[in-house]
Amino acid sequence: MIIFSGGTGTPKLLNGLRKVIPEQDITVVVNTAEDLWVSGNLVTPDIDTVLYLFSDRIDLKKWWGIEGDTFRTHETMKSLGHRERMMLGDLDRATHIMRSDLIRSGMTLTEAITQLCRSFGVKAKVLPMSNDPVSSMISTPEGKRHFQDFWIGKRGEPEVLDVFQEGINRASISPAVLRALENDDKVLIGPSNPITSIGPIAGLPGMVDILRKKKVIAVSPIIGKEPVSGPAGKLMHARGIDVSSAGVASYYSDFLEHMVLDKRDTADEKRFTDLACDVSRTDTLMKSVSVSSNLSRHILEQFRIM
Questions:
Q1: Which end of the chain has less neighbouring CB within 10 Å, N or C?
Q2: How far apart are alpha carbons 33 and 55 in whole angstroms?
């Protein structure tokens, strides 16, 4: 099974999945459209969350960054008049420096992440969706902004007129991801933001055609009319997509076979029938690792792995 991941909802699921199946059996294809360069180094937020999870470094209270990290470098730079686009921890910054050095030495992003996995002792296979630059951009009345500048710099407050992925038509699915997809017919789309986390992966040229030949299951990131976390609702609305589990299913309708809904979701299942999408229900509100593990077992049952 291959898992498509963004940076918060899906890592919570992965935290339960690794309690159910061996980590070395897990392959994660991670969104890179939120990557950006900060103070001369490449930051890959979604990839780093997955790396820190599997290496037991992640701050589980925030679901980003490294537990116990300090911010002395960031604060010192700020005191000297240099304002960074993101607040980076000191330990976290070491990851960015190492990755950027590897890329400057001639490695692809995939090769650099593979090296980081070895250095961190990560047994799961963590694969960037592409080695080519792609950026999720938010159109606002004040102009377009990188997703990180919108979400972190502006706290997600500006009106959203549109969302698009800059550079995606020139990007290619990484060879490592293609090999993984050739060897597995089961794809799980995690409960990450459908527009800026999963959308860029599915939007890579040729990906939809590949997914149509797979058994694809998605976990809805929406309960009722509200996203579990993040700006997914605001971004879906801007793209004219109904903010609901059925809206997410319609967005994935070119390849989705089954959607896992939260047991509290009031969605009309007829809407899924119209999309030729089966549904099942369980607790998807992952407030503990035991809930994540139970959700993982439910998903594996739908794939008929358990």
A1: C
A2: 23
